[in-house]
Backbone:
DNA sequence: CTGAAAGCGCTTACAG
DNA sequence: CTGAAAGCGCTTACAG
């Protein structure tokens, strides 16, 4: 293992100079710097994280996070991941300050961000609403030297470092694959309940779903797409209507939240009702319904990692200033059934 | 953050003494030790891994691993996990030396273990065959101060530190849950192809499978259980026979390997054949069959973690000598379909 | 039984 | 532009 010390000896300079050269801190003669870099390259130098971490304790890293988690159990696991990551990095003087909002409001998010900035956070994790004003906010933060990672919901056209979250299109394709499996070639009529047609992710799930049934499962038809606005009162009402409708669907596919309302309506209709429900995610609210069989199967999208990864990535970035390998870090989607719990 | 230095100041002793007291190295007056421990407790002292790691570089940790991976693509991901873990810990002077065997032979495994010991490894990761002689070997290693973690396959009655791997019973239950979902209340006749009735894990999968269909899916019947011995020639032949049999099953559930042989037989029978195949794991061999629809769905068991976790756990153990929280660290099982790839 | 000192690999004022 | 030194938190011979 090559260390800075060894390189310094070989180059005949001090360790400080090697540090400056290798980390492009300037203030070093370009010829000397190039010689040092060449030696490092030849010896396959890799900076040692333990040494780095120890030195970094003199300048702790404060990370801020803003999530619309109030009243939304989906984010429970995201926050667990966030805290676990913080705990694992506590030896490296990393701390995470979390602010929450209820619902999706750009104003509320910006307010929380400003609070965090005044607390002195040096990096941010955001789950931004899809509005121009948030793009501007993110860009001005990044310009001011505060790196931003988007989690769960992306703003592609902003200067965020990267996105960590669901591959919504793939999740939709998987849902279609699962329905195809269950339909087994027989006709199946599906109603899609989506969150909002204004939310990019939800639309991507629907497109993914359609792309697969069009290609592989002509026996599956979608008779309706309705918005729940992630509101369980709305999803309850819609589901009640479906149950009474003359063209009762064989299955419901929910791309987003408000799962509780639909489950409640199906549960009230009793075990005789024959609509099968397929959802994403698994929360404290939906869990009992998977156990009781109201939900046939669900496709979670690793919310834990959506909290865990951004902290790690911002820490890495603070050390080496190299942006993450991937512009979009997709979390795993996988199917679970009652017996998985 | 409390450090050893701070505790030393408060206790009015040297850092060396604090270190000895907190890590039970002996050679310290019991009253002084107790006072130091009390201070550490009150201040919520947690040893800093970065400092620890740096000091540990003077005594690098060499871990040995023995896997029956030759000719068995299942272990590809296990080894990827092993190497990734090694890479992440390289700053902590951890290295992993891997030896492989072809097939399951206690003699071959013991020979590899002895080679590793003579290379000076200080801890071992094993995927032991289920034989008394391996229990004895593990026990004598542990008695000699070499901690052992079993991966993928356990020997519960040995002195291994812990097991990392599949919850076979749960995997079997999930498979049954999935078949129940697909059967949708209609009669379904299943043939189980297992690896060997002498392998504990395979039997646990079968029991798990039965427990669920007995409780929840009376419409599912198991007409036959056959052994493939993880040999694709055998599974090919069995599957051919099933295809020609008068009581052709609706589905095959494979608990173990030899998936390739069954897939080949089903593929040769053409798309008109109506047997649906459910398996565990996903390998370079089985992947194309999931893509082409020969395999309806599969339940991998996170082989990557089976390599990744043991290295981390042995490293942690080398630092603090505390055995892992769990006696059995189960890796995740989850259902994937073609669209998951 | 205890302490002083050196060292793991890195960074960073400070002095020149 | 460069070096010497101190320090992050821990461990460990060595001396007493």
Residues:
């Amino acid at each position: 293992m090559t260390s800075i010390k060894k390189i310094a000896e070989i180059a005949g300079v001090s360790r400080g100079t090697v540090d400056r050269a290798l980390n492009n801190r300037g203030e070093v003669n370009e010829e000397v710097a190039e010689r040092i870099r060449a030696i490092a390259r030849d010896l396959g130098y890799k900076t040692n994280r333990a040494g780095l971490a120890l030195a970094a304790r003199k300048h702790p890293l404060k990370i801020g996070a803003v999530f619309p988690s109030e009243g939304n159990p989906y984010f429970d696991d995201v926050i667990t991941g966030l805290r676990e990551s913080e705990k694992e990095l506590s030896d490296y003087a990393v701390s995470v300050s979390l602010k929450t909002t209820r619902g999706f409001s750009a104003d509320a998010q910006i307010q929380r961000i400003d609070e965090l900035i005044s607390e002195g956070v040096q990096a941010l994790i955001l789950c931004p609403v899809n509005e121009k004003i948030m793009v501007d906010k993110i860009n001005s933060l990044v310009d001011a030297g505060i790196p931003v990672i988007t989690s769960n919901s992306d703003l592609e056209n902003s200067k965020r470092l990267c996105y960590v979250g669901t591959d919504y299109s793939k999740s939709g394709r998987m849902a279609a694959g699962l329905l195809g499996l269950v339909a087994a070639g027989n006709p199946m009529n599906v109603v899609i309940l989506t969150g909002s047609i204004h939310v990019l992710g939800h639309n991507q799930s629907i497109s993914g779903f359609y792309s697969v049934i069009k290609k592989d499962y002509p026996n599956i038809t979608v008779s309706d797409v309705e918005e729940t606005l992630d509101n369980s009162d709305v999803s309850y009402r819609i589901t009640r209507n479906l149950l009474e409708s003359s063209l009762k669907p064989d299955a419901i596919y929910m791309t987003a939240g408000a799962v509780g309302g639909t489950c409640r309506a199906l549960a009230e209709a009793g075990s005789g009702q024959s609509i099968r429900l397929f959802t994403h995610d698994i929360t404290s609210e939906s869990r009992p319904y998977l156990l009781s069989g109201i939900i046939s199967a669900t496709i979670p999208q690793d919310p834990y990692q959506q909290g865990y990864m951004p902290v790690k990535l911002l820490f890495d970035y603070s050390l080496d200033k190299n942006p993450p390998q991937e512009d979009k870090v997709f979390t795993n989607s996988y199917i679970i059934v009652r017996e998985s719990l």
